[in-house]
Write a structure and sequence with these properties.
InterPro entries: KinB-signalling_activ (IPR024164). The protein has six helices and no strands. The chain is an all-alpha fold and 196 residues long.
Length: 196
Amino acid sequence: MTLRKWFKLFWQALLVGAVVSVATGIVLSFEDGGISFNGFSDYVVYFVILFGYGVLASVYSQLGFFAYLILNYMGNGVFSKKGWQYIQMVLTVLALLELMFFRTFVGGQAGQSSDLILSIVILVVAIITALYKARMTNISAWIPTLFFMIGVTIIEIVGGLKINVDNATAFIVIPLLACNAFQILILHRVVQTEKS
């Protein structure tokens, strides 16, 4: 991967995060009667905040993505290919179970139904992303894509779950999922060598 390709990926991911964050913020602003704005300046400030959060979520997603790439490189170097795939599957299942029961066991709170819904949403998005990735590349991309989309996304959102507000959790999860899916789906195009 060249610096020019990485720079292009960086800006594209920033744009994805910002657009998805603004769209999510607009949809969530209509929840519970909507947000009351006092004037045009309130609208501008609200959109700037949404855009800024999208950029931050994108950068956070990119940190997770490059951490995953390093972990995947090391895992492939230390373990056999089949062994590393089994390890990724076990870690993916453990991360999903962690998310389903995180607030119940750690915080002693009754957030089990919303955690279960969040787990199902992440699982469905991960499966759809893995299907597209396997179609675009090959079947061996299935397990690493699931591991990234489930395991890394859950690691990225664990801090946000402590807020314990469903709208805030959705506002955190949706841009991260979009950025993660974008990056893993475009990775093979970014790293492929150009034919002369």
